[in-house]
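ingest -> validate -> predict -> emit
validate: passed (alphabet ok, no gaps, 127 aa)
predict: started
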Amino acid sequence: MAKQIITTPDAPASPLYSQGVRAGSTIYVSGMVGVDPVTRQQAGPTIQEQTRQALRNCTAVVEAGGGTLADVAHVTVLLADPADFAGMNEAYAAVFTSDLPTRAVTKLGVDLPGVLVSIAMTAHLGV
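emit:
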């Protein structure tokens, strides 16, 4: 099965990696930070603002690949500061309210100025 590269103007992009890849019925979304794709700036200085934007960015890639948030099976959250866990959870819980995906949360391994969170997703389409 051939892989399909997913691109969308509704999420940040880089020449170093694909925003997403669809292989069969699975969509893999690269780690997305809280950057607004229009302004190319962080969505705000708080963990809640950056988490909401990172989730919007991931959702845009999933949708560009033909899926929805209901198809998300796993989420990986990388926090620059583990003390931001509660604030991240606050924003996360507003997006995933039922039929929750599995999740892993760990510390972001690199220091990216202004970046508080990076989120990656894997979605499985029921096709």
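The mean pLDDT is 95.
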